[in-house]
Write a structure and sequence with these properties.
It is a single chain. About 75% of the residues lie in helices and about 0% in strands. With about 700 residues, it is mostly helical. The chain has a domain of about 100 residues: Serine Threonine Protein Phosphatase 5, Tetratricopeptide repeat, CATH 1.25.40. Helix 30 packs antiparallel against helix 31 and helix 36 runs antiparallel to helix 37. The longest helix has 20 residues. It is elongated and about 155 Å long.
Length: about 700
């Protein structure tokens, strides 16, 4: 076949394709290829015809062959792109992207509009496949091309906005390079807006700052963006709120951070981040109760802030609200999710604080939960403080061997760490090895003298070591006072100070003050509450005693605070207010229905109120619970006598006298009973017994 015949065959193939006679076109092309196997146009026509005949493999191979023959010719690449675009196969996306890339290369120096069309298609393809880096890089090429052509500022602004839209929803899946391209797009958008200030520009800035806040390593950029937005929009609180949240998360509580908190509260007193910031400031200033109040209020408005929950837990730990601290730590962990990078450090701190709170709570279950928390801390095995906490958890759980093993390893590996010696001290103290415990706590204090707990336990060691160390002012008392000075919220120390002043020094007034302080710090400390009430009564200060009792009973739920109900009931009994006494003693019995003495007191209250039948039942219930309560037996007989049940009363008096011959009230009662029934002459009672 001559060249002239080849051209004629190709012309015939083109005509056949135009007429949709694709099989005829294939015949002409194959005839050409017999003569010229690398004829570019023949292969392109075969690709087109085969595609129309739904012969995808032949079409693809033909187009590929053409691109190999003439790699810089457009026709085959265009045909291959069209073939892939129409293909129903799902595995051609990568090939199509390569074709688009080649077309961009071929169009770049020629048809710019086609270049833009292909570029848009390529970006859309990458976006569908979630290849965000390729999306960003390709779109940025488009923008650079437009800039090179001298595009208007407004057009470029829209193109940067489009790039943000393409990338903004994928920040969680972006690598650092993609993130940088997104942030660059934001910077171009906020700097190229036509109208500034404006609502649209303000919203763009908000989106930019929100995006920045998702990248923990972009702190400098975030602070600059917030400050720039505040300069443009001084009445808008959003950048300040984000900046505050950034400071919370970073833990960088500088003067700048504190100024930021104050400024936000000045602008909006109800701002959640502002209130949280004030709470953190209070925590720094050791105003722990104010800190808890503000942090709690702020977190009701801005709950998804793990750092704020951690600060709240810290404040609760400072005043020894350990259960509350555990709950706050749980909230912090829940809002934190699965952290990476710097936020992983925050998770470790939260877990450590949670474990510490659980250990302070004592108990086997709390110890088990503490161990689980410690196991989640990354690199815990290299931290002596965390290891010491693990040892304490083992000790609380009763695993003495495990606790001792941790202690020995710590003393070998970290002999200069206070916690190593403190753990050893806790173990000796629990085993009542007080001399060894003393040495350990002194070693711990030598290394960390400002820890109140170490002084407290050294004081307890002296308290139980011997009467001499208990009474020695330079021993137990001195350590308790140091602990109280270092931690004025440590209620248990004030309880032991109360014990010292009451039992050793004989100073009831000072003891009462210590017990009262201990109870104010820990309302669950019934020992201190009772002691404060008893000493107030002894000192004639009934107002203080009643104030304590009233406060406890007002807060008490059914079946709780028995001691307070009982004390106040007895007070009303002494002051001849039987109806009030009945109510309080009944409340005490709801907490402990088997308290015989309480039933006896309730009987007295009913008797004082004139409720004889219920008084009788109460006295009988008291003797059922404790048959040795002679007074209750006697009072039951006396009530029976009042009710006219003389024979029953006399019989009861006789029972008492059989056991306690000289019980004068029973003797008087039995004489009175005889007089009432005029039965002296017929009584079979042994006269000798009566004389006695």
């Amino acid at each position: 076949m001559s060249n002239k015949e080849v051209k004629a065959a190709l012309k015939s193939a083109r005509e056949a394709i135009r007429n949709k006679e694709y099989k005829e076109a294939l015949k002409h092309c194959k005839a050409v290829l017999k003569q010229e196997k690398n004829n570019y146009n023949a292969w392109v026509f075969i690709g087109l015809a085969a595609a129309e005949l739904e012969q995808p493999d032949q079409a693809k191979a033909a187009y590929r062959k053409a691109t190999e023959i003439e790699p810089n010719q457009l026709l085959a690449w265009q045909g291959l792109a069209s073939f892939y675009e129409k293909s129903k196969q799902t595995d051609v996306q990568g090939d199509l992207a390569d074709v688009y890339q080649k077309l961009l290369e071929l169009y770049e120096s020629g048809d710019k509009q086609k270049w833009y069309d292909v570029c848009n298609k390529l970006v859309e393809l990458y976006h569908q496949e979630k290849k965000y880096l390729e999306v960003a890089e390709t779109w940025q090429k488009l923008i650079r091309m437009k800039e090179g052509e001298g595009a208007e500022k407004a057009e470029l602004h829209q193109l940067w906005k489009k790039m943000i839209q393409l990338l903004k929803g994928s920040t969680q899946n972006q690598d650092n390079k993609t993130a940088q391209l997104l942030l660059t797009a934001f910077e171009h958008v906020v700097n190229s807006a036509d109208t500034v200030p404006s609502e649209e520009h303000q919203n763009l800035y908000k989106d930019f700052i929100q995006c920045l806040s998702k990248f923990s390593h972009e702190t400098v950029r975030l602070e600059k963006a917030c400050n720039d937005m505040m300069a443009l929009y001084p009445t808008v609180t959003y950048p300040l709120e984000v900046l505050c949240l950034h400071f919370f998360q970073s833990g960088a509580l500088s003067e700048e951070a504190l100024h930021c908190f104050s400024r936000l509260l000045e602008m909006d007193a109800s701002s959640g981040p502002g209130i949280i910031g004030f709470g953190i400031k209070c925590l720094q200033e050791k105003k722990y109760k104010e800190a808890i109040k503000s942090l709690t209020e702020g977190l009701q408005k801005t709950s998804q802030c793990p750092a704020a929950w951690h600060y709240l837990a810290e404040a609760q730990m400072k005043i020894h609200k350990h259960r509350d601290a555990v709950l706050s730590c749980n909230q912090a962990l829940e809002t934190l999710g699965t952290p990476e990078g710097p936020r992983l450090r925050l998770k470790n701190l939260i877990l450590q604080l949670k474990a510490e709170a659980l250990i302070k709570m004592a108990g086997v279950d709390a110890a088990e939960e503490a161990i689980k928390a410690l196991e989640q801390i990354v690199d815990a095995s290299s931290d002596p403080v965390v290891l010491a906490l693990r040892g304490q958890a083992y000790l609380n759980k009763g695993l003495m061997d495990e606790a001792s093993k941790v202690s020995q390893e710590l003393l070998l590996s970290h002999p200069d760490v206070a916690e190593s010696h403190a753990l050893e001290g806790f173990i000796h103290y629990s085993q009542k090895n007080y001399e060894q415990a003393e040495r350990s706590f002194l070693n711990a204090i030598e290394r960390k003298a400002e820890t109140a707990e170490y002084h407290k336990y050294l004081g307890l060691t002296y308290w139980f070591m011997s009467d001499e160390t208990k009474k020695d002012k330079g021993k137990a008392l001195t350590q308790f006072l140091k602990a109280a000075k270092l931690d004025s919220y440590l209620g248990s120390v004030f309880c032991y100070l109360g014990n010292y002043y009451r039992d050793i020094a004989g100073d009831k007034s000072r003891a009462r003050g210590c017990y009262k302080k201990a109870f104010e710090l820990d309302e669950a400390d019934e020992e201190s509450g009772e002691a404060a009430v008893d000493l107030s009564m002894e000192l004639g200060d009934t107002d203080t005693a009643l104030s304590i009792l009233n406060e406890v009973t007002e807060k008490a739920t059914t079946g709780t605070a028995k001691w307070a109900w009982l004390h106040r009931g007895l007070y009303y009994l002494r002051t001849d207010e039987p109806s009030k006494a009945v109510a309080d003693l009944q409340a005490a019995l709801r907490a402990d229905p088997k308290d015989a003495n309480c039933w006896e007191s309730l009987g007295e209250a009913y008797l004082g109120r004139g409720s004889y039948s219920t008084a009788l039942k109460s006295f009988r219930r008291a003797t059922e619970l404790n048959p040795g309560l002679v007074y209750s037996i006697y009072r039951a007989a006396a009530v029976e006598q009042i009710l006219g049940k003389y024979e029953n009363a006399i019989a009861t008096y006789q029972q008492i006298l059989e056991k306690t011959e000289d019980y004068v009230p029973a003797l008087k009662g039995i004489m009175s009973g005889f007089e009432c029934v005029n039965c002296f002459s017929t009584c079979t009672l042994n006269v000798s017994v009566v004389r006695k």
